[in-house]
């Protein structure tokens, strides 16, 4: 990788990442895995429940947790071997961001999609009064309508609305901010962002503690079907290929248990393919609905897996065929350019400055070398590891920007709305 002295206009070659030396297995081939009750844990749950891990000689012990901070800490403290994680969490850890950062890598993505932004029915009613809202799928029109409401609230000296995200270093935080900024809203001045654990978002909205949230399925549909929320944007509206959840593990664990990790990746890949098959959705939804996993109605989960939305409780519906993608189009591949897009959002919102060392650290979090070691020729061509993002039809950002990983400073500077003094969100 080479750079110009200015830090912009540098050229990127595919990163050379060290691969752990093969280590002999010690002890039983058991993996303790932490997860948050979300539909995007499906691949991990299916690997345990439908025999994919067992076929690779692994026993997956799944442990449900309540917050991403807990997941982070329990992985760092070796209570978990691997964990269901937000895609930005390994990047943040390798940058040393947040409280208790501990080195974390990801060799596998658990899929794309699954997030949405939901606002309170009261706030959405005010947006409708502006005449600017579009159909349910017009996320940009909805953001502009919200901007008009916020201007009205400022004129009346009303308190700014409070929106929940699941973690500061999360796709939810960056997608909420991206959506707001695309509508001309400064997320650090015009609204208040707070951290709310995913299972509590619907209740927090119903109680009036927050006025909206960005979270993964099924909690947006839970809120809409309860009549307390209106879905105004989905992840696919913001950027269809945005990475969502990943498998996180400690680098030292990957080195000490390489064979076990590669077996896990094989099991997850086969489970992901199974989860993508609509013929299996009824069985998957039934398992996910159980109290030890999501504790949500199986019928609702089947709708989520099929991308069928209840936008509100008034009969407004929407279908996104690729709302949850687990395997298709290499959804499991940890593409380094996606890690760099995450890094760009951390820079955009004041969580970290750009630096060459930071760029290398962000790249080190995503490990396509381990993915290729497990899946061989089934892995994508490494020539595309550092591709421009948002350029292809059907995979564009909602505001038309294209992410060039070769010039992150220029990309960030091209946004009219970005951090002035940094994010104030705490990570616990």
Automatic annotation (TrEMBL):
Record InterPro entries: NrtA/CpmA_ABC-bd_dom
Enumerate the subcellular locations listed in this protein's record, separating them with semicolons: Endomembrane system
**RNA-binding among keywords:** no
Coiled-coil annotation reads none
Per UniProt, which keywords does this protein have? Cell inner membrane, Cell membrane, Membrane, Transport
Query: Do the record's keywords include Membrane?
Result: yes
Q: Which SUPFAM superfamilies match?
A: Periplasmic binding protein-like II (SSF53850)
Name one matching Pfam family.
NMT1_2
User: Where does the secretion signal sit in this chain?
Assistant: none
Instruction: Identify the main location.
Output: membrane
Name the record gives this protein: ABC transporter substrate-binding protein
